[in-house]
């Protein structure tokens, strides 16, 4: 009997003395009799002894004060609302305090005061940073409007407005170096359909075998929209161009052989009205 008891005691001691081999991603970490889970930065472990299944069950979790959830990120993590009465904007992030600026950060900024010329932003007291247009040098000059959200990007020196490529004056008018419209080349025919959505510049070259033509606009356009048409006459002779559907002109346009003409229209939303024409160019 004593021999059996001794054998059982030795077996228990041997079982307790066995080491657990631990690997991470297939690589050996160590082999010890105890495996200890230590909480990491934002990660914690909750373990319980499962007697029925002869095991210890562990479930990892995270600290939402350190690691933002998907819903938190999409809700307001980058939202920056300034209620200052001046253009020296300040704000605090809703999710957690920003500790420092870093190049590449983006924020959704809403202000309640118009930035008529220059302005700045201070987030969570990390320092005053100038706000510029997307080029990084031009002041907003009316682009930041109260109640209108704007995405801003920190480039390491200034905040750049990401959604605006042009500047505005104090009245809100756009200012840009150039605006180049595309040229719509229309095939010449006795009845020409002018697609007003194809651009604001349209050109056609007459063909001797076809003769005169009529131009019809597909729609009446948008109120305030401008449109220009260039008629290039072939060398064989001048063609007479009439203006039909949706076009209100001063009359037919009589061309000269080898010469070009231009005609300018503006829309009030119900029709295109002729503004000016130039012939024999």
- Total strands: the figure is 23
Give, in order, the helices and strands. Answer: HEEEEHEEEEEEEEEEEEEEEEEEE
Q: What is the CA-based Rg, rounded?
A: 37 Å
* Oligomerization state: single chain
Number of helices: 2
Domain module tally? 2
Distance between the termini: 124 Å
Q: Beta-strand level of the residues, as a percent range?
A: 35-45%
Q: Please list the strands of the largest sheet in the order they lie side by side.
A: 5-7-10-11-9-8-6
Q: Which structural class best describes the helix and strand composition?
A: mainly beta
* Major sheet attributes: 7 strands, mixed
Shape: elongated
Q: Helix amount, in percent?
A: under 10%
Mean pLDDT: 84
Residue ranges: pLDDT <50 for 5 or more in a row? 4-15
Please give a quick description of this structure.
With 281 residues, the protein is mainly beta. The chain has helices at 2-17, 70-76, and strands at residues 20-24, 27-32, 43-50, 55-62, 79-81, 88-91, 106-110, 119-123, 129-132, 150-154, 159-161, 167-168, 174-175, 183-185, 191-194, 201-205, 213-217, 226-232, 240-243, 247-248, 253-254, 260-267, 272-278.
């Amino acid at each position: 009997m004593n021999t059996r008891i001794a054998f059982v005691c030795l077996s228990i001691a041997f079982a307790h003395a066995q080491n657990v081999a631990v690997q991470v991603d297939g690589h050996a970490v160590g082999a010890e009799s105890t495996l200890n889970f230590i909480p990491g930065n934002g990660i914690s472990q909750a373990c319980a002894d499962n007697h029925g299944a002869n095991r210890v069950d562990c479930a990892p979790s995270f600290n939402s004060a350190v690691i933002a959830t998907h819903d938190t990120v999409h809700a307001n993590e980058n939202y920056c609302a300034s209620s200052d009465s001046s253009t020296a904007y300040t704000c605090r992030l809703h999710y957690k305090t920003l500790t420092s600026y870093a190049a590449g950060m983006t924020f959704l900024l809403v202000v309640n005061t118009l930035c008529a010329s220059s302005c700045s932003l201070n987030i969570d007291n990390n320092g005053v940073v100038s706000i510029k247009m997307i080029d990084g040098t031009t002041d907003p000059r009316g682009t930041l409007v109260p109640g209108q959200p704007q995405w801003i990007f920190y480039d390491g020196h200034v905040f750049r407005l990401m959604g605006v490529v042009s500047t505005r004056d104090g009245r809100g008018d756009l200012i840009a170096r150039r605006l180049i419209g595309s040229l719509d080349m229309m095939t010449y025919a006795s009845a020409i359909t002018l697609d007003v959505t194809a651009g604001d510049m349209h050109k056609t070259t007459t063909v001797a075998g076809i003769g005169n033509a009529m131009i019809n606009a597909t729609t009446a356009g948008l109120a305030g929209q401008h449109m220009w048409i260039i008629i290039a006459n072939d060398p064989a002779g001048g063609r007479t161009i009439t203006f039909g559907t949706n076009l209100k002109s001063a009359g037919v346009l009589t061309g000269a052989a080898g010469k070009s003409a231009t005609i300018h229209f503006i829309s009030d939303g119900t029709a295109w009205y002729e503004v000016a024409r130039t012939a024999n160019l």
